[in-house]
Structure formats: C-alpha cells, structure tokens
Amino acid sequence: MLSISIQNLITSVSYRNPRQTKTELLNVMKHYRSLHAKVEYFSFNDGVRKKLIVLKGTIPIKYKGSYYNIPLSFWLLDTHPANAPICYVNPTNSMSIKVSRNVDSSGKIYLPYLHEWNQNRSDLLSLIQICIITFSESSPVYAKSPFSGGEGSQPVDPVFSSLLEQQHPSSSNSTIPTLHLLNSVRSAVQDKLNVALREEFEIKGCELQSLRKMRDELNSGKVSIETAITESKRNTDALEKNVEDLEGKLKELEEANEKLEGEKEKDLDEALVGTAPLYNQLFHTFAKEASIDDAIYYLGEGLRRGVIDCDSFLKNVRKLSRQQFELRSLMIKCREKAGLRV
C-alpha cells in the first residue's frame, strides 16, 4: 500500500526520475516511520509556486544526554536526484529556531552535504542521517520560555520530560492503591526506555552506515592514489633510464668531437689509399679516364656555344680519345691482374 501511495504522489507531480525518487522515499520511510510524504505547494524566492513532494515529520537526536524529536521537512524538486532537496526546520508554537551556520532565521538548513550534492553519490537517507548527526551536536531549536520571549536553556521535547506528571494521580483518584500506581509508573518508564533504546539503536545504525560509506570511499581513494603512485614511479624509472642513455650518447659525441678536433686536416688524395699498389694504380687510372670523359663533354659544350672551332674540337677529341683508350686498356689489365670482374 505504501508503495502504491508513493507512486501516486510521484505521478501527480511528474518527476523526471520517478523510479529512483520512489526508491529513496520508501527507503527513508522504512527507517523513519515518523516521516510522511505528501504533495504540497512550495513557494520559491521569485514568487513561483510549484507542486512538490515534501517529506514531513520528526527525526530523533540525542543532545546533551537527552533524546529529542526535531520537526523537519524535506522538499524534493521535480529534478530529484539531479538537484539537492530543500530542507527546513519546522518549529512548533512552543519552539524557536536557533540560528547557526547550519540553520538560518527562516529555518532553512545549510549543510556541506547539500552544497556538494551529487546525484551519483548522494541520497535522501544519507542526508537525513547527516542531519541527525549534525543536530545531535547543535540543536536547531530551543524551547520558548513561558515567562519571556528569550531563549530557553534546553531543547524541546525530551523523551523523559513530564513523565511523572503524566502518571501522577489527581486528587479525585486518590483511592488508587499505591502498588497499582507504582506498577503503572514502572510500566510507563519501561516503555519510554524501550523507545529511547530503539531510537539510540537507530541513530547508531545510521552513524555506522555513514562511517561504512566513508570507509568505502576512502578505500576507493586509497586504491586510486596507490595506482597513481605506481604509475608515477614507473614513469620516473623510465625517465631516469632515458636520461642515463642520453648522457652516455652525449659523452660519446663529446669524445668523438675532441678526437676530430685533435686530428689535422687530411688531404683527400692521401686519405684514399688502397691496400696494395695494384689497387692504387687502378684507382688513379679510373680517375684519369673519368676526367677525360668530363673534358670531352665540355669540349662539346664549347663547340655548341661557339667558343672553339670545329678543327680545334676534333684535334683535341682525337688526342683525348687515344689517351682514354690507353687508360681503359690499362684498367682492364689491372682488373684481370687483381682478379676483379672485367
């Protein structure tokens, strides 16, 4: 029945994420039966009024050794859980709001959990548990003094307040046996103790759940940090190895540079020396034959451009051709002597 009722409320307001909203409401009302969901109009600061689901009722807190029920309301925006709920303290006629960093004069609640609301990590049940923990440290309301408008010395509605007054017999019932009266008081005290113990158990359970969630988040962060440290160490080792290799290469280059600077400039002809006289003869013969090719080429260019006449061209070409023939013949003999392919 509760599930159907919540579903009807959500349908009437048209929430963007009805499934998660329904799940969170059912979860809260399962743990805190003093909270009830209904649809009411909420007035925003700009004057706009909108139908929203509001969770109203009381939450149990333990303040300075006594138990109190604090009246609160949690307004769920139609974008829930993308946006944080709007929360208020709803004091009764006998209460006044105690302004603090968590509650303003209108009763609106301000918490880091609301400011840092994240739809993937935040939920309504955790918000209520944080309210219990926060208001157990600093009560958001105080009892009005019956004699003045000033602040009372104690928060409202202690569990054990006026217990004996409720159970004390009036003058018209003075005939009730003393033993009967004593048993009645004992029974009432026992009931109050049972309620107090149950509420204490719920509060501790909420605190434990919040601590477990915090522990899981810390463990997850620890794994991420360890992974980052390992990756950083691996990168550092690789960089150190690269630096070491580069320093070695730089040292080799410096040594080679010093060696080159210490050597005298060599003549190219002296540097090109064969391993045997035959190879030297073959090398020089080939160089001369190649130079004759170049000379014949440039003679042709001179003739084409009119620098030399035809007779001079033919005379020099015949002379160079004879020399080239002799050089080629000598190269063939040298290659045969050296056992090279002709």
UniProtKB/TrEMBL annotation:
Domain SB intervals: 276-342
Signal sequence range: none
rRNA-binding as UniProt keyword: no
Localization in the cell: Endosome
GO BP field: endosome to lysosome transport; protein transport
Sequence ranges assigned to domain UEV in this UniProt record: 2-145
Any GO CC annotation of this UniProt entry: ESCRT I complex
Alphabetized UniProt keyword annotations: Coiled coil, Endosome, Protein transport, Transport
An annotated Gene Ontology molecular function: ubiquitin binding
Coiled-coil parts of chain: 229-270
Cited PROSITE patterns: SB (PS51312), UEV (PS51322)
Family statement drawn from the similarity comment of this UniProt entry: Belongs to the ubiquitin-conjugating enzyme family. UEV subfamily.
Record's protein name: Tumor susceptibility gene 101 protein
Annotated source species: Caligus clemensi (Sea louse)
